[in-house]
Structure formats: C-alpha cells, structure tokens
C-alpha cells in the first residue's frame, strides 16, 4: 500500500513537470523604447518599463531577441480602460503585415528587426507589448505629453502705489511649474511680491518706482520649456495733470482749499466743485472749476495733458 502511494506521488510530480514545460513562457523580458532626435530624448534601459515623450516626436519600440522561424509577430496596445488593440500583426511565412486602420500613415514596422515606430499623437499614451505564438513581453507604459506653447503675459496697472497683477497663461499644454524673473534675475526677496494659483499669477503690492523693469514668466513640463516677458513702466500720479484751474475775479484759491471746502471726489476720481458763498454778503466770492477728468486719462491722451499744463 505504501509502495503504491509512492508510485502515485512520483507519477503526479512527473505530470506536473510535463505540464509546466508545455506552458508558453509569459513575460519573459521587457520592451525597450526611445525617442528619436531631434525631439526630447529619453532612452530607457532594458529593465525599464516606462517612457515619457512628446506630441509630434517619433518613438521606436524594440522587441526582445526572440528566435523562431514560423508563426505570428504582434504589437498590441492597451488603453486606460484595458481595451486591447492589435496595432501590427505580421505573418512571417507570408511576409504579410496587417495594420490597424487608425494607425495608417503614422506607423512604420521593420520585418527584419520587428521594431515599431510611431509618430506620436496625444491619444497614443498607454501600454504596449510584443508577442509571438508562444511568448510575450510585459506591458510597457508610454506617456505622451503636449509641449507648451509660448505663454501670454499681461498686467492690470502701471500706477505707483497700486497693486499690480501679472497673469501668465499658456494656451497649449499642461504646465508643471512656473518661475518668475525680473530683469533676467530671480524675483527680489520682498514681502510685496506674492504668487497665486500654482505661481501662475504674480502680485506686487503697493508698487514703487523701483519696481520698474522687465518681468519674465517661465513655464515648463516634462518635455518642454518656454517663456515670455513684459516691460513694466511705473507711472507716478503726482506728475499727472488732473485739471485746469479757471479763476473768476481777482482772488486765486489754492485747489486744495477747494477740495477741502466745497469739492467732493466722485466715482473714478472725478472732482465736483460747487460755488463758494461768502457768509457775510451771500454773493459768490470766487468759483474754481476743475475739469471733470479721470487721472488715468493722462495716460490715454498724453498730448492733451501736456497742453493743459
């Protein structure tokens, strides 16, 4: 009885060994990939399983060194929803290549080295694998990133004492990081300089004439870098002509006296002056009229400002 049990155990082990030998080898090695020059280059070692590249670049996938004389060579693609798509199916005996229609004009395949070359579009990011009738590789991850366009930079003001806001916006591509410079150097250590929205907005509080200069917004992601600049010319409102004084009579009043006595400041900086009446006689002493003009108009109409002065 004991001998019979030992024989059964030996037979079972032999059966398992034979069964294991007949199973095709799976995940034997890695696919390798690289981005061709002159695009962003990211070469991976044979032990790597991920590549980052850019839209418009060309990537070459290379299979492992598999030796067989007959059968099928296949490159497969898998998206985030795990849907598998065969890009290339090569029938070796017939030297025939079946290409998926969505890759027409965008793929090159070598019948000699079995390499797959793809000119990348944004939707090409996903997983790739190479397999034959009996063997296959691990899935290789490709991440495709859109290069950044030149940023657009604008500001909201140029008056001394105001809060100036620089907004850096990139029309195309996803920005990983923003960096700001003034006159080609890093921003000065100043508590008036504040950054918001992942550093895409620069605010300068209580601006001074010393803040004049060229401000640069640099943007970057894993495959590209770009920048743009804007010159800031701070204007001092004390040097801006705000009106013309018209005097009736022989007495010239200081406009500041008018502002304190009978003028009021309206919306947008407009000044509204009323007639001053002498407490004793009840007749008008002097009327001082300031032109109803916004101080910012001197920027829009500098010639008129010069004529007024």
Brief summary:
The protein has 309 residues and is mainly beta. It has 4 helices and 22 strands. It is elongated, with a radius of gyration of 38 Å.
Describe the fold and architecture:
There is one protein chain. It contains four helices and 22 strands. With 309 residues, the protein is mainly beta. The strands form six sheets. Strands 2-10-9-4-5-6 form a six-stranded mixed β-sheet, with no helix packed on it. A four-stranded antiparallel β-sheet has the order 1-3-8-7, with no helix packed on it. The radius of gyration is 38 Å and the shape is elongated.
Q: Can you count the beta strands?
A: 22
SS-based class: mainly beta
Oligomer class: single chain
Number of helices: 4
Categorize the overall geometry: elongated
Largest sheet: 6 strands, mixed
Poorly predicted ranges: 18-27, 240-309
Mean pLDDT: 74
**Radius of gyration based on Cα positions:** 38 Å
Strand order within the widest sheet?
Answer: 2-10-9-4-5-6
Give the terminus-to-terminus CA distance: 123 Å
Order of H and E elements: HEEEEEEEEEEEEEEEEEEEHEEEHH
Beta fraction of the residues? 25-35%
Helix content: 10-25%
Give a topology summary.
Elements lengths: L1 H21 L9 E4 L14 E5 L3 E5 L9 E7 L5 E8 L4 E4 L7 E3 L6 E4 L6 E6 L8 E6 L6 E4 L8 E6 L7 E6 L2 E2 L6 E4 L4 E4 L8 E8 L4 E8 L13 E2 L7 H7 L1 E3 L5 E3 L14 E2 L7 H4 L1 H7 L1
Parallel strand pairs: 2-10
Antiparallel strand pairs: 1-3, 3-8, 4-5, 4-9, 5-6, 7-8, 9-10, 11-12, 12-16, 13-14, 13-17, 15-16, 17-18, 19-22, 20-21
């Amino acid at each position: 009885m004991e001998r019979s049990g030992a024989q059964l155990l030996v037979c079972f082990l032999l059966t398992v060994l034979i069964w294991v030998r007949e199973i095709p080898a799976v995940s034997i090695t890695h696919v390798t990939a690289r981005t061709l020059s002159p695009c962003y280059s990211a070469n991976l070692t044979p032990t790597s399983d991920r590549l980052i590249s850019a839209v418009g670049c060309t990537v070459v996938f290379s299979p492992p060194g598999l030796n067989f004389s007959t059968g099928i060579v296949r490159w497969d693609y898998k998206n985030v929803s795990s849907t598998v798509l065969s890009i290339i199916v090569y029938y070796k005996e017939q030297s025939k290549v079946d290409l998926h229609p969505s890759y027409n004009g965008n793929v090159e395949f070598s019948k000699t080295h079995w390499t797959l070359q793809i000119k990348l579009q944004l939707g090409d990011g996903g997983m790739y694998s190479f397999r034959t009738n009996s063997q296959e590789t691990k899935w290789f991850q490709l991440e495709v990133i859109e290069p950044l366009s030149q940023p657009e930079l604008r500001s909201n003001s140029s008056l001394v004492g105001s809060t100036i806001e620089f907004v850096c916006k990139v029309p195309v591509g996803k920005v990983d990081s923003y960096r700001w410079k003034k006159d080609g150097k890093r921003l000065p250590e100043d508590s008036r300089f504040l950054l918001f929205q992942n550093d895409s907005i620069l605010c300068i509080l209580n601006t001074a004439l010393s803040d004049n200069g060229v401000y640069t917004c640099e943007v970057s992601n894993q495959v590209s870098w770009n920048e743009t600049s804007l010159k800031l010319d701070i204007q001092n409102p004390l040097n801006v002509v705000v009106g013309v004084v018209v005097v009736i009579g022989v007495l010239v009043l200081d406009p500041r006296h008018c502002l304190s006595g009978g003028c009021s400041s309206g919306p947008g900086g407009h000044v509204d002056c009323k007639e001053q009446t002498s407490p004793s006689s009840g007749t008008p002493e002097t009327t001082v009229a300031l032109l109803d003009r916004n101080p910012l108009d001197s920027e829009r109409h500098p010639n008129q400002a010069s004529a007024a002065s």
